[in-house]
């Protein structure tokens, strides 16, 4: 029975990992751009939420507002800085985005200090659900449901709408998309903003679970890359599948072999790289 | 809290830097300056601890300057929390600044490395780091430790709580899997055995773990009366935060055996800390003359309440400077000789530096988090439930000074 609980708990963790990683995957899919600042946008989302809640705003206001603020900041960063290095080799992408991540992290310390902080779950979701021996926080249930709805909505936008078709076309061939009269620069900025905004939203949602501290972006970046590599770079459904797989693995391993929980995640990633270099659902 | 954050954010106060050539190997004159190196992480994940430690060193130096009528300064050495960096910074300070007195080392790994370097170069190093080896199997003549090791931390938290909760017979532990965690766990197991407590389970986790819900699900399934959290720093905060979100506070007693103190309470907030038991090396509410004087000084000088990092660094620096002045030298062997066996009125009351292993014998505290409505001020997060001294003998700790 404990394993059933762990699987359910793992799905909850995995949905948050999906939200964290899907932005990274979408950005890579469209722009072929490796964004090492993705964890820093997650960090900003968490801290914006923390700051707004500390100022007395409701979590329900703070959460979307934080995601929008991160999205706007990321789009601006793309316009001012990142679009200038798309055509350069990946090593430049890594150098610039690692630098950007460090700047954001240090700015976070300057603005909010080196100590962490706590974001209480919103009123009405600060209790627990009890089913027999199983106890689960209401807020985590909300995160699962919210992320599931968001995942379906995002999938519909990307697969079922004209905007999604343009984005997908851009990821196949930006030149041809431009020839059809679409402003690919604007599309790139919007997609980068969306991807980073999703990381910001993940940070906002994670804040009541994990609290905030200046180095939380590093851990998030590591998890995001694991999920994207397992799921397949640029694959939306791959990110969803891999997020849940990683979450369930982490949770079930807490019962089977607790000290190896992290190890198994990275071992799984290594196996996928060896056996399926494009990831579980990556495109050829 | 605002003042504390603002102060750290400004970065306005850092350790003084000066060159101090020509002091090695001789007595100093009454007018010569004394410099104490403060090797602590000023950057990286433990930067907050290091910055508070820097303030503690500065305060002790300022007080010593006034008391002894000579210039006493500190020099911050950013170890970044890395043993290799720490040793390099200490070597540079020996070579370029002539510093032989060092008070710092937040992390055990860096402290062990710096203590060996101090011994090699006839310096003296005193630390608040936690690993048993520092005054145990890896003890040396130049290394001193103020904080209580794992044995005392468990003896002064688990044992009193067992006595306070006679019906709590089932305990579950969450432990980081490395030497520190195992040290705490083994002492706890001995007490469980002695007291007839059923240890209903333990979850080991890695040092990089941030998600504890899986371990908490295990703990819930084991139906314990007490959840004993044996990790520290941000991991203990994450564990406790998630345990509270899973409603465990209402179903069992929670004890964090090795808490960081005030900075951890600030980060978690009173809603999470209320009713939770914490083990602590220092608490600003300790009712001793030494601590009351420190609290007053820190509030006047920095407009904040001292936490463990600040208080620890303060007492380490004070001990070193007092010993150096009394010895009339900064040579490690002479300063160490003054320190060894010394009994003094410290922050926790009467403290003694045990001569056989250079371990300070002092109190460890069991705190209980207060409800927000019961807090007298913004820092009054907890009350002291019990306190006392518990230490292995130098022989049992494995110290062979040689």
Automatic annotation (TrEMBL), chain A:
GO terms for biological process: amino acid transport. It comes from the Bacteria. It is a multi-pass membrane protein. Keywords: Amino-acid transport, Cell membrane, Membrane, Transmembrane, Transmembrane helix, Transport. One of its GO terms (cellular component) is plasma membrane. The keyword Transmembrane helix applies. GO terms for molecular function: transmembrane transporter activity. It is found in: Cell membrane. InterPro entries: ABC_transp_permease (IPR001851), BCAA_transport_permease (IPR052157). The chain crosses the membrane at residues 12-37, 57-82, 94-115, 139-158, 190-209, 263-281. Belongs to the binding-protein-dependent transport system permease family. LivHM subfamily. This is Branched-chain amino acid transport system permease protein.
From TrEMBL, chain B:
Residues 34-372 form the Leucine-binding protein domain. This is Branched-chain amino acid transport system substrate-binding protein. Keywords: Amino-acid transport, Signal, Transport. One of its GO terms (biological process) is amino acid transport. The keyword Nucleus does not apply. It holds the Pfam family Peripla_BP_6. Coiled coil: none annotated. Residues 1-29 form the signal peptide. Belongs to the leucine-binding protein family. InterPro entries: BCAA_transport, Leu-bd, Peripla_BP_I, TAT_signal. SUPFAM superfamilies: Periplasmic binding protein-like I. It comes from the Bacteria.
């Amino acid at each position: 029975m404990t394993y059933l609980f762990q699987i359910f708990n793992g799905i909850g963790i995995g949905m948050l990992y999906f939200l964290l990683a899907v932005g990274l995957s979408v950005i890579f899919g469209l722009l072929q751009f490796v964004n090492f600042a993705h964890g820093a946008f997650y960090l900003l989302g968490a801290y914006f939420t923390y700051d707004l809640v500390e100022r007395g705003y409701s979590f329900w206001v703070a959460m979307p507002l934080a995601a929008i603020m991160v999205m706007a900041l990321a789009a601006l960063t793309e316009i001012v800085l990142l679009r200038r290095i798309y055509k350069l080799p990946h090593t430049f992408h890594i150098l610039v985005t690692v630098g950007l991540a460090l700047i954001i992290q240090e700015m976070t310390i300057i603005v909010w200090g080196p100590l962490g902080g706590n974001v209480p779950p919103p009123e009405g979701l600060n209790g627990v659900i009890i089913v027999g021996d199983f106890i689960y926080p209401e807020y985590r249930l909300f995160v699962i449901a919210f992320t599931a709805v968001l995942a379906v909505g995002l999938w519909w936008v990307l697969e079922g709408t004209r905007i999604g078709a343009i984005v997908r076309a851009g990821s196949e061939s930006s030149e041809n998309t431009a020839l059809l009269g679409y402003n690919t620069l604007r599309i790139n900025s919007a997609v980068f903003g969306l991807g980073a905004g999703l990381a910001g939203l993940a940070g906002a949602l994670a804040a009541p679970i994990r609290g905030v501290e200046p180095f939380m972006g590093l851990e998030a970046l590591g998890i995001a890359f694991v999920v994207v590599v397992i799921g397949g770079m640029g694959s939306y459904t791959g990110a969803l599948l891999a997020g849940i797989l990683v979450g369930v693995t982490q949770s079930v391993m807490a019962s089977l072999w607790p000290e190896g929980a992290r190890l198994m995640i990275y071992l799984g990633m290594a196996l996928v790289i060896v056996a399926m270099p494009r990831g579980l659902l990556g495109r050829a | 809290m605002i003042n504390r954050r603002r102060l750290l954010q400004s970065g306005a106060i850092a350790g003084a830097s000066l060159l101090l050539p020509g002091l090695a190997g001789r007595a100093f004159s009454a007018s010569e300056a004394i410099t104490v190196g403060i090797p602590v992480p000023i950057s990286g994940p433990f930067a907050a601890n290091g910055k508070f430690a820097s303030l503690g060193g500065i305060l002790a130096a300022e007080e010593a300057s006034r008391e002894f009528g000579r210039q006493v300064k500190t020099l911050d050495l950013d170890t970044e929390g890395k043993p290799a960096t720490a040793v390099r910074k200490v070597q540079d300070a020996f070579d370029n600044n002539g510093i032989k007195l060092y008070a710092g080392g937040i992390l055990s790994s860096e402290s062990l490395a710096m203590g060996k370097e101090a011994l090699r170069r006839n310096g003296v190093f005193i630390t608040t780091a936690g690993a048993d080896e520092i005054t145990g199997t890896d003890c040396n003549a130049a290394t001193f430790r103020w904080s209580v090791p794992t044995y005392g931390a468990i003896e002064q938290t688990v044992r009193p709580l067992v006595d306070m909760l006679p019906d709590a017979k089932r305990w579950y532990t969450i432990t980081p899997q490395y030497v520190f965690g195992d040290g705490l766990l083994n002492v706890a197991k001995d007490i469980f055995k002695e007291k007839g407590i059923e240890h209903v389970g333990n979850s080991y986790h890695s040092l990089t773990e941030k998600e504890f819900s899986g371990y908490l699900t295990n703990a819930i399934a084991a139906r314990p009366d007490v959840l004993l959290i044996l990790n520290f720093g941000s991991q203990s905060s994450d564990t406790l935060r998630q345990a509270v979100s899973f409603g465990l506070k209402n179903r069992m007693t929670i004890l964090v055996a090795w808490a960081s103190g005030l900075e951890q309470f600030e980060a978690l907030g009173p809603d999470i800390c209320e009713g939770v038991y914490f083990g602590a090396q220092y608490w600003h509410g300790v009712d001793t003359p030494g601590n009351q004087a420190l609290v007053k000084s820190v509030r006047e000088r920095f407009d904040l309440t001292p936490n463990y990092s600040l208080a620890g660094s303060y007492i380490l620096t004070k001990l070193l400077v007092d010993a150096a002045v009394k010895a009339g030298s900064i040579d490690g062997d002479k300063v160490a000789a003054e320190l060894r066996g010394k009994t003094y009125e410290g922050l926790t009351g009467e403290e003694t530096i045990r001569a056989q292993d250079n371990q300070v014998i002092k109190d460890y505290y069991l705190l209980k988090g207060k409800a927000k409505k019961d807090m007298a001020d913004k820092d009054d997060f907890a009350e002291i439930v019990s306190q006392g001294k518990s230490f292995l003998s130098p022989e049992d700790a494995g110290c062979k000074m040689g």
